[in-house]
Specification:
- Chains A, B: One of its GO terms (molecular function) is hydrolase activity, acting on acid halide bonds, in C-halide compounds.
- The structure is a homodimer of 235-residue chains.
- The longest helix of chain A is centred in the N-terminal third of the chain and has 16 residues.
- Chain A is globular and about 55 Å long.
- Chain A is 47% helix and 12% strand.
- Chain A folds into two domains: 146 residues, 3-Layer(aba) Sandwich (Rossmann fold), CATH 3.40.50; 82 residues, DNA polymerase, domain 1 (Orthogonal Bundle).
- In chain A, the strands form two sheets. A six-stranded parallel sheet of chain A has the order 5-4-1-6-7-8, with helices on both faces.
- In chain A, 44% of the residues are buried.
- In chain A, helix 6 packs parallel to helix 11.
- Chain A is an alpha/beta fold.
- Chain A starts with a strand and ends with a helix.
- At the A-B interface, helix 7 and strand 5 of A face helix 7 and strand 5 of B.
């Protein structure tokens, strides 16, 4: 195994708390009541369906920043929230300012001593550059959906990254907190590691609390993965 | 200006001295007489013509690693040099172990505090990952020809990078030691900075000794560029 690529939203960064904190900051600044938790959850709720429309060809290729904006506009209308264009642009960029989980930076830093470490994300590259800078993520390389003009779980994303790495799929491992992402990668021959992020979706999370497939590794978090790989542990 | 992208071979790394040193090492190990300087210069001589064959459609898309190998095989035959397959693979990877110019790492490190810093290179991504690791180059992002399946000076490479950055060309600057590369970028609306590398082609270099266009900046080297941009100097 030569390279480890990471799902980012939820696996490396804590999008939900980060969005809620930024909604709270905006509420303080504007004096407007903003249901931050609800907005964060509903906004993320639009995530998969909006990409699926692109994946099914019902909408031409659209980067995630623009899908986010379409969902945001709908959400604000549904909630009767009145924000002007500048504020909407600012809110859309909340996704560019996401905090890492506590182990992410240390884990990636340890792993990149021995492996090529990259993103494998449905976010667009310009978004990922901002996230990397904000969260201090020490990527060697960014694999983003807009490089391939496909969204995961389309095979073009997983195999496109392997091809650019010049590696066969079995030399590349996907690390994700989502069993479905790992399933798609495994079917294409990539190695897999599951790390649980039991609070990604908040205190009442019910999905992805544990490994649900025959993954090559299961680790507590990214730092734990680095330690296991050095000690030669398997799952 | 938000992002600075760099030509790599010659601008950021000293390919010629690095190849010659590795040929010398191989000669010591094998006891075989190897004309390292000649081979380095002739190998690089095949570089532009080999990419031009791809650019003109005479050869299907081929990554630089494979173009290098085709040129190497021809070169070894011309010089009557006998290397087996494993040795040829090792020699081809000399391009993965290139040393930076003395200012490159410090300059890129200074620039990335304020700008997105990326490669914009005809090398393939897997090659560039190795060069980055070997030379310690702190890239934010790697733009490589195989992302676009085009070689510079095709417009797809320059505009493709701007598009992935989510920036209009005038917010992106190309830094290169080659006037022709800057010319292509300027024609597409990118900003440009020339830095001379008067020994890139060895002691008798005649080309690209100075700026030959109306570039936005001319700097002594990458570190000097970082200093000029902070002090608000123009060309």
């Amino acid at each position: 195994m030569k390279a480890i690529v990471f799902d980012v939203f939820g696996t490396v960064v804590d999008w939900r708390s980060s969005l809620i904190a930024q909604f709270a900051e905006l509420a303080r600044e504007t004096g407007q009541a903003i249901p931050g938790e609800t907005l964060a959850d509903e906004w993320r709720g639009h995530y998969a369906p909006s990409m699926d429309r692109v994946r099914r060809g019902e909408q031409p290729w659209t980067v995630l920043d623009d899908l986010h904006r379409q969902s945001l506009d709908r959400l604000l209308e549904e909630h009767g929230l009145d924000f002007d264009e500048a504020q909407r642009q600012r809110i859309n960029r909340f996704w560019h300012r996401l905090e890492p989980w506590p182990d992410s930076v240390a884990g990636l830093t340890a792993l990149r001593r021995h492996y090529t470490v990259g993103s494998l994300t449905n976010g667009n590259l310009s978004l990922m550059l901002d996230v990397a800078r904000h969260a201090g993520l020490p990527w060697n390389v960014l694999f983003c959906a807009d490089l391939f003009r496909h969204y995961k779980p389309d095979r073009e994303v997983y195999l496109g990254a392997c091809d650019l790495l010049g590696l066969p799929p079995e030399d590349v491992m996907l690390c994700a907190a989502h069993n479905s992402d790992l399933s798609a990668a495994q079917a294409l021959g990539l190695k897999t590691v599951f790390i649980p992020r039991p609070h990604e979706y908040g205190p009442r999370q019910t999905r992805d609390l544990q490994a649900e497939g025959d993954w090559d590794y299961v680790a507590k978090d990214i730092l734990d993965l680095a330690i296991r790989l050095r000690s030669g542990d398997s799952a």
